[in-house]
């Protein structure tokens, strides 16, 4: 028998005869006639018609790929079933012929149900008194896999795979209908993309890669026969874990069948059978912990991508549905991370050599005008292996609880469930912006005392960090020196709730019971300590909030991707509340404060960094006056420390980038970092901005108007 083109074999049995066989032989031969009468009533035409329509469109689960910004470098994958859909034109004829030889040598002669196979099964079943053979054709097997893959409930999965007579009859009827709708070539393509070959290999692409580190197009007859032989029983014929005796025997059986069907000559089959099974194994990465270790902290960025994905309605109604889409939807995801900026961030927070400390030093950089997160780094290894971690620094945790260093997968930089860290005076930006947006000017003066007694906040008496801050202050000098009493007074003038609501509009979320209670509408007007940064925040939130100020008050939601493509290559889309279709990966921006107010806030924020504002005076000194010299270009920002310096922050920005860095003990917030380490975040931001922007043209901030200067 000669080698035949797989798509050209004619249908040898007329459709009428196939129908008679389906109605008589399937009923009377495959199963006892008395039983079939009841089964036929249950397997209604409506149910078959409904399921057949699903089979024509259903695609199996497919692996999603996560790429570096070049769109070519695969960082990791997400999958429950490792699979990449492959067209039959991209498969070697060897694997097509081998699977027919192994599973259904009359595939091109029948119309979904093989009468001869049914007869053989009937004889075998009658002898055994059960169902020892099922006479499943490739088409019937495809039907079963398609129903399994399209199932949306555990019950549907069970119905698609359970060994019952009812399921078998439905499967046969549907196979006949499928063959009226799909060509043999289409059925074979879908079958080879659905079959399980063992070792997490679903579909022929995964099987070729995992067992032989090659593509389906290049499979040899020996390799194809080996893989085709696995489908019947992936564990029994596994060539990886067994001594290969059974695997070789099964492979040789497939090679013999290929020769009998004319796909191989007798000599070629004999030569192939004489060869040992030579594997070249590949272990495909899965999820964030599988990212190559040379990308030291990219795992934290990957984890942020997953948390962001789980919050996107475009991918499902809830977190469970969205993560299921990620692992089964076959997406191509290109990260927004910038390798140059990431390298600078890693270097300047000691990500590669500073993991042996309970104090986490992390940094996040956001792009003004897009919200794209360009880098995330922390002095930790992203790893599930906590075996080398010591005990937690939190005395209430107990001796068996591991510390967060050197290894962790906790979202220390934001984007997950952790509340973050008290951000101190970096929060003074929010009442300043609210005041400027409400009509106050940069020249607003107040004779700030060392201790201020608030008549609005129930006689609360905040103090300044130093007596040198006492005296007349404007927004420029009060921001540069971080004069607490000035900002509490200003907050009283506009209402604390305005700063709270503005912080929310700039992306902050309240993650502790205490913060949520104070931020509630009925309590926010009394939250005087808000301006001093008693609330928890994450570096991700703070970097993106300050990025909005750099973008003249235009806030963009934080986003970790440049592109998301569906399995068919089209951009992933979502529908806005207004009914507009938009790409999921496109920036989502809105004007939160007017541009002049944002420019005025930036002018004041140049004072803490040692930079010179365009319009006013910083009052002679500042809290981070080394930053301007390190960055070497116009820069704004704000320091922040908490009581007893339990944590320390610096958030800085240029027109191109915003960066937020912190140092704190994530396990024990009462473990103070101390004044000696309060400069660490300042250096991390300044040096990272310097390195990230090296070689780029210097851009100036736009000065505020005369009206808002006052």
From TrEMBL:
It holds the Pfam family Transgly. Residues 363-666 form the Penicillin-binding protein transpeptidase domain. It catalyses: Preferential cleavage: (Ac)2-L-Lys-D-Ala-|-D-Ala. Also transpeptidation of peptidyl-alanyl moieties that are N-acyl substituents of D-alanine; [GlcNAc-(1->4)-Mur2Ac(oyl-L-Ala-gamma-D-Glu-L-Lys-D-Ala-D-Ala)](n)-di-trans,octa-cis-undecaprenyl diphosphate + beta-D-GlcNAc-(1->4)-Mur2Ac(oyl-L-Ala-gamma-D-Glu-L-Lys-D-Ala-D-Ala)-di-trans,octa-cis-undecaprenyl diphosphate = [GlcNAc-(1->4)-Mur2Ac(oyl-L-Ala-gamma-D-Glu-L-Lys-D-Ala-D-Ala)](n+1)-di-trans,octa-cis-undecaprenyl diphosphate + di-trans,octa-cis-undecaprenyl diphosphate + H(+). Keywords: Carboxypeptidase, Glycosyltransferase, Hydrolase, Multifunctional enzyme, Protease, Transferase. Residues 74-258 form the Glycosyl transferase family domain. The keyword Mitochondrion does not apply. InterPro entries: Beta-lactam/transpept-like (IPR012338), Glyco_trans_51 (IPR001264), Glycosyltr_51/Transpeptidase (IPR050396), Lysozyme-like_dom_sf (IPR023346), PBP_transglycosylase (IPR036950), PCN-bd_Tpept (IPR001460). PANTHER family: BINDING PROTEIN TRANSPEPTIDASE, PUTATIVE-RELATED (PTHR32282), PEPTIDOGLYCAN GLYCOSYLTRANSFERASE (PTHR32282:SF33). This is Transglycosylase domain-containing protein. It comes from Micromonospora coerulea. The lineage of its organism: Bacteria, Bacillati, Actinomycetota, Actinomycetes, Micromonosporales.
